[in-house]
Structure formats: structure tokens, C-alpha cells
Specification:
Blueprint (H helix, E strand, L loop, with lengths): L2 H34 L1 E6 L8 E2 L5 E2 L1 H13 L2 E6 L5 H6 L5 E6 L2 H4 L2 E8 L2 E7 L14 E5 L3 H9 L5 E5 L2 H9 L5 E5 H10 L5 E9 L2 E6 L3 H16 L2 H10 L13
Parallel strand pairs: 1-4, 1-5, 8-9, 8-10
Antiparallel strand pairs: 2-3, 5-12, 6-12, 7-10, 7-11
């Protein structure tokens, strides 16, 4: 055997070993979770109605209900781990959590982490009183609309609003909501997470979603290459859609029926 051919054999063997290790490591992820009897779930501690701290100091919300249902499918306990927007990807890749809730998909993120299917709607909606007839962007003509300045909502509304519409920009969501419910504006444009709080509390005004400006649903993220875990999560989500569990969570926390089309990206 020549030096060259011998070297090629060593390289081939090394590549095979690395590939085998990768497959074994991937297979061990599900095994590790089941062996531990617990799945560590990264979740925002203050992101109502998806997650927030209740009066008894427990964490509740849409994300919590979905995470617990996935835990039941896996046959393990769910341990909620507080994360934030800055540390959550590091927590995932450092194996401090096994999956993350409420992650928006992007091609850039997909280079670093794996994505299961969409499980939660995130969309920007125009909200107005039940008595006000608004069916699409053209109907905003002559209306005054509140929005949080410099946000994705602001960008989407500015793009869609007719020239005769007046956009009033506020520094935070509390100011947007206050302007709308006090009658300073006819409408407001907010994400469905913010809108859910208004739909629940303002029974006299009877606000409702009029139409959507854009949709970018939330996904569950896992470590790159965890195909078995992704498949299991996707199966659990499909079951929750089919048996109405996801709809029940949506009506409970988001105050609106689950629509499958809201789990599809639309810009």
C-alpha cells in the first residue's frame, strides 16, 4: 500500500467515524431525555398570554399548555427554564434546555438551530370596535390608527394604510391600548399577543380583529440535527390540531379560535 492510498483510507475511516458519531449523538438526544425523565423547556417568564407568572407563582399560558402536552407525548416531566431573547439560543446549544418555545423562523436562525413545525399564531392585526366596519386596508381610509412606533407593526401598517389614514405612533403598547380604548383613535394595529389582552378585557367596547397585516407564526426550536425529536414534536402538534387541543388553548389564552392558516407565514 502506498503512502497516498494509506492516507486516503485513514481519511475515509475518520469521516465514517465522525458520521457514525453524529448519528449516535443524534439518536441519544431522545434517549437522554427519556432516560432523565424530564425535558427542559426554555420559556419567556413574562410574555402574556403565552407565558406569565400567576398569583400562586406558577408559570401559565399558551406556551406552557403546549409544552406540557408535548411532555405527555414523550412520557416525561416538563421543567420550565426562564430565558430571554439574548441568551436563549446559547442555552439551547449549550444543552441547558432541550427545546425553546416561541421562536420565529428565519433562514439565518436555521443555520444554527433546528425547527419543528409552527404551533402558535403570531400575526399583526388591525383591531377596532365591533360596530366599525373594516374588512381590509382600503377601509382604513379616513381612520386614525394607533401603533407602537418603530416596531414591525408600525412598518406593516405604514405599508398598508391609505394616504388619508392618520397613523398615531406611541412609545409603548400600554399607550397604544390606552389611545384606542379611550377613543383617541378609531383602530389600533398590534400583534395577536397584545390584542388578546384587549379582546378579553374590553367587553363594553367589544373590540375585534378586523384583518391581518402579516403573519409569522411561532415555532419550537431544538438543537440542530435532532430529527427524532422534531418528528415527535411535529406529531404532537398535528394531534393537538386534529383533536382540538390546540384550539382549546387558543380560545383560552388568545381569546380567538385556532385557524390553521394562521400557522402559515404570510407577509
Amino acid at each position: 500500500m502506498t503512502f497516498t492510498s494509506g492516507f486516503r483510507c485513514l481519511v475515509a475511516a475518520a469521516v465514517t467515524a465522525v458520521a457514525a458519531f453524529g448519528v449516535a449523538a443524534q439518536a441519544d438526544e431522545m434517549a437522554d431525555i427519556k432516560a432523565a425523565g424530564v425535558i427542559n423547556v426554555g420559556i419567556f417568564p413574562d410574555f402574556p398570554p403565552f407565558s406569565s407568572v400567576a398569583a400562586d407563582m406558577s408559570t401559565v399560558g399558551y406556551d406552557v399548555d403546549v409544552a406540557n402536552d408535548i411532555g405527555k407525548v414523550l412520557g416525561v416531566k416538563v421543567k420550565l427554564v426562564p430565558i430571554n431573547g439574548q441568551n436563549r439560543i446559547a442555552f439551547l446549544n449549550d444543552k441547558r434546555v432541550d427545546m425553546l418555545m416561541s421562536v420565529g423562523y428565519s433562514d439565518e436562525r436555521a443555520q444554527a438551530i433546528g425547527f419543528a413545525g409552527a404551533y402558535a399564531p403570531y400575526y399583526i392585526a388591525v383591531i377596532g370596535p365591533q360596530a366599525t366596519k373594516i374588512e381590509g386596508p382600503a377601509d382604513m381610509a379616513g381612520k386614525t390608527i394607533a401603533v407602537n412606533q418603530g416596531t414591525l407593526e408600525d412598518t406593516s401598517l405604514t405599508k398598508a394604510a391609505p394616504e388619508s389614514a392618520t397613523i398615531r405612533r406611541f412609545p409603548n403598547y400600554a399607550a397604544v391600548i390606552q389611545a384606542f380604548i379611550s377613543g383617541q383613535t378609531d383602530l389600533m394595529a398590534v400583534g395577536n399577543n397584545v390584542g388578546a389582552q384587549v379582546l378579553e378585557k374590553q367587553t363594553a367596547l367589544k373590540p375585534e380583529e378586523k384583518f391581518q397585516l402579516m403573519s409569522s407564526p411561532s415555532h419550537i426550536a431544538v438543537r440542530k440535527g435532532e430529527d427524532a425529536l422534531i418528528s415527535t414534536i411535529d406529531g404532537a402538534i398535528k394531534t393537538m390540531i386534529d383533536d382540538g387541543t390546540l384550539n382549546a388553548a387558543s380560545e383560552k389564552w388568545l381569546k380567538t379560535p385556532m385557524k390553521v392558516e394562521n400557522l402559515q407565514t404570510k407577509n
